[in-house]
Amino acid sequence: MKENFLWGGASAANQYEGGWQENGRGIANTDVMTKGTKDTPRGVTYRLPDGTEHQTGGIMINDLPFDAEIKVLDGYDYPSHRAVDFYNHYKEDIALFAELGFKVYRMSISWTRIFPTGLEDEPNEAGLKFYDDIFDELLKYGIEPMVTLHHFEVPLELTNKWGAWADRRTIKCFMNYCEVVFKRFEKKVKYWITFNEINNIFFGFLSSGLRSSDIQATMQAAHHQFLASAMAVKLGHEINSDFQIGCMLAASRCTVYPQTCKPIDVYEAWQQSSRQYFFSDVQCRGYYPNYQIKYFERNGIKIDMHKDDKKILEQGTVDFISLSYYRSMINSSGDIEENSKDPLQLGEINPYLVATEWGISIDPIGFRITLNNLYDRYQLPLMVVENGIGAIDKVEDDGTIHDEYRIDFFRNHIKEMRAAIQIDGVNVMGYTSWAPIDIVSAGTGEMRKRYGFIYVDMDDNGNGSLKRIKKDSFYWYQKVVASNGEFL
Ligand code: P53
């Protein structure tokens, strides 16, 4: 591996920080999402003008009445409010990351710490100071921060006012926020990521604060995110030409295998992955690909494009591609267009692979294929910013945690990444695990779905001491980093 390969770990503010109202932080979409399980979806709480209070049956809220006010209500449990309290534990946690040997730490800034409603003219100084302290702490150990500007978090005010990203005005609010953080942290942060898993905009409320999961509204919102991302790339480079600014793709969704070798299955699998590559095509090439323009035409989807939009997209192509990879998929049988509309449908289980307790098919070879596909398609450096396994861990009586299933997962995936780099010649800048420490699950809001090398004593109901405990995988990953990927 290259000498400067960026080994590290990754997290997101709303799943990790807690301190949801500390120092003037505003309320975000993620703060009104209740807890779910593998089988029951998370809900969104709201109040109707008649004063009645409700919770949606999922994070797709297309059934929500127009005059519903989405808000935090008494009597509901919202995991983001406490998360695992990085807010008060950041020194301890960063010291553990340093012990793991991290070269890079991927994190996100919570937009509402900086602009509580998204609409203020002036930023919240206390929020900026919080991130100054975190960056200083990282840099003290020589850990390079990599910052996601938008990780599934949007000021709730923008959602209630105009459906957040569904409305073009959100771009301006986002740009104000970007300008403030780019300038403030210019000397401390070099690596930036615009939108986390931009192709998961189909998660609607969860990823982008959308009030409607209608395909037309969703694709228009995607257009606004493309513009905002491109404008952020341009602005960032103007502020500091050393900035490296990337996009972020949920690459698991691109890795779609045909169910059989029937040509129609191959065709459908290819169609499904095209629906996903569309997002990186726009961000890496700077224009809408023909196949997607045709797809929009066929489905009666009309993107409201302003005169300068084409130029904005052209001028804001990314410096690198970051990606998450958890699994591969197989094409679901049936109508292609219908399937592409169901965002939480992860497809059927691949009979040749073993799945996790949450139904995620473990596929290290798929990782190698994915890295090759992305690099071939764009010839841009890749940064793996999420890869990991959610599992239930057991603390033994003596306080140890033997998570060999997690070590196996990482060993097999890092092996395939190494093959992609050394055998296939793919340019990979670095690798950050999801997540180095147990945090709240985005999909379910659970704690028991653990990803960390570091255990956090906290259960699904928010009970626990928050004590941090090193799992067996901690010592293993430490050796991987120290040997630059030689020891696996
Ligand atoms: P969790 C699925 C559902 C929600 C978010 O997921 C997701 C995915 C997988 O693509 O995306 C990323 O916590 C996301 C992270 C998230 C991670 O996957 O549901 O960028 O925020 O935690 C893992 O197990």
Describe it for me?
It is a single chain. The protein has 488 residues and is of the alpha/beta class. It has one domain (6-33, 81-482): Glycosidases (TIM Barrel, Alpha-Beta Barrel), CATH 3.20.20. Helices cover 37% and strands 13% of the residues. The protein has helices at 13-16, 86-100, 111-114, 125-140, 156-162, 169-184, 205-208, 215-239, 263-285, 290-298, 309-315, 336-339, 364-378, 404-422, 472-482, and strands at 6-10, 45-47, 53-55, 69-70, 104-108, 144-150, 191-195, 244-250, 256-257, 320-324, 329-330, 382-386, 428-434, 454-456, 468-470. It has an 8-stranded parallel β-barrel with strand order 1-5-6-7-8-10-12-13, surrounded by 4 helices. A 3-stranded antiparallel beta sheet has the order 3-2-4. Strand 12, helix 14 (404-422) and strand 13 form a beta-alpha-beta unit. Helix 8 (215-239) crosses helix 11 and helix 13 runs parallel beside helix 14 (404-422). The chain is globular. Bound molecules: 2-(hydroxymethyl)phenyl 6-O-phosphono-beta-D-glucopyranoside. Residues 12, 15, 152, 196-197, 250, 252, 324, 326, 386, 390, 434, 441-444, 449 line the site of 2-(hydroxymethyl)phenyl 6-O-phosphono-beta-D-glucopyranoside (P53).
